[in-house]
Amino acid sequence: MKSQLAIYDMDRTITRRATYTPFLIHAALRLAPWRLLLLPLVILSMLAYVLGFLDRGRLKEINYTLLIGRGIAPKRLEPVIESFADRQIASNIMPGARRSIEADRAAGRRLVMATASYRIYAAAIAERLGFNDVIATETQLDAKGRIIARIDGANCYGDEKLAMIQAWLQREGLEREAVHIRFYSDHVSDSVVHRWSDEPVATNAHDRLIRLAEAEGWEIHDWSDKPPRLRRAPARNRR
Questions:
Q1: pLDDT at residue 20 above 70?
Q2: 44 by DSSP, 3-state: which?
Q3: Has this prediction a pTM greater than 0.70?
Q4: What is the C-alpha separation between 13 and 222, in angstroms, rounded?
């Protein structure tokens, strides 16, 4: 019998709102409020990303450095992470996502979060939601053991997310043929993982992903505060 996995994206799949910039602002307020004066530079870096001068990984590194600093001791950052995670659990988790997570847990599925967000805070959110494992963008440590902005490895996004999930399966000793994977995400950038999974689910999806899901016959869920709904494409289009 195959092992059952339920893999969830985080931002706007489980959460109502994205978490990365709010985490940086939360950290700046608690560690060095003067860094909020650098927010115009954060906006400029985002514009540079939109114009194609930066990739997503480099954008993360720049904004982390601007609002948190070049390096911070883990013990100093830990209470900031914990308070941020508590805030997300209290106000930023979609009710439908909670129901789905509980249903997958009750069905005996191993719960895995796979997110482009930094592990340093995504893992704290995942722990509070009862996830078993986290696959996320990793940060490096400098020679003094401080957490720095530089990404360790790849940004867990798009094709890299699939590669990181596959590497995680290998580390866990799980053969792809021996697992059944249910995958949830809100964004078309994760369509490569949707196609690779056994049960792809578009959740709280934007129009482009909805169109793709309808064409491919994937499940479409709305986990917002509105009454829950489940849409499926016509049976003839299903996988």
A1: yes
A2: helix
A3: yes
A4: 9
Residue 134, classified by CB atoms within 10 Å of its CB into exposed (0-12), middle (13-18) or buried (19+), is buried
- Residue-wise pLDDT for 175-233, tens only, equals 999 999 999 999 999 999 999 999 999 999 989 999 999 999 999 999 987 654 444 44
What CATH number is attached to the domain comprising 154?
A: 3.40.50.1000
| Containing structural domain, residue 115 | 3-237
What are the structure tokens assigned to 1, written together? 């019998």
* Number of domain units in the chain: 1
Euclidean distance between CA atoms 193 and 186, whole angstroms: 12
223 secondary structure, DSSP code: -
Residue entry with tokens 């494409």: 233
* Residue 177, token pair as written in the block: 């043929």
The pLDDT of residue 61 is above 90: yes
Residues ≥6 apart with Cβ < 8 Å to 227: none
| 148, amino acid identity | I
